Amino acid sequence: MSVAFRRESDEEHLEPKFELPIPPGPNLVTARGLGLIEANVAELEAKLAQALGEEERKAVLRDARYWRQRQASAQLAPPTSGERVAVGTRVTYERDGQQRTVEIVGHDESEPAANRVAFTAPLVRAMLGAEVDDEVELPDGAALTIIAIAAAS
User: Which of 122, 130, 117 lies closest to 86 in space, CA to CA?
Assistant: First the structure.
């Protein structure tokens, strides 16, 4: 029989399951972000205490490894006065005649639809350290002006 017609198992045809990628660099988090990480770990620990099928258990263990590592490496961002753009600040800026407000957060609590942007985003990296009325040049050559900075609640 030709090797082309031989089938060893279904496993050899499945896509490999990789670990969830850990973002490079420091794991700076806000107090809210640390709470979210702790909640994810607790939820996954509770799932692992239940009876799970083999595939579901593997998936939960994979997620648990990611969140446990994120919890272990979490560094609470230093408190901010709101004078300079930093992790844990709410920043209002103007770009192309439009104002927008974003909250600068850690990687895992980033949610652009809710205006929470990670400190690793190119927009935020360009703004870090800026003060009110500073003009910031973005990587694409455009510029924005910092209108207001406040410590996020």
Answer: 130
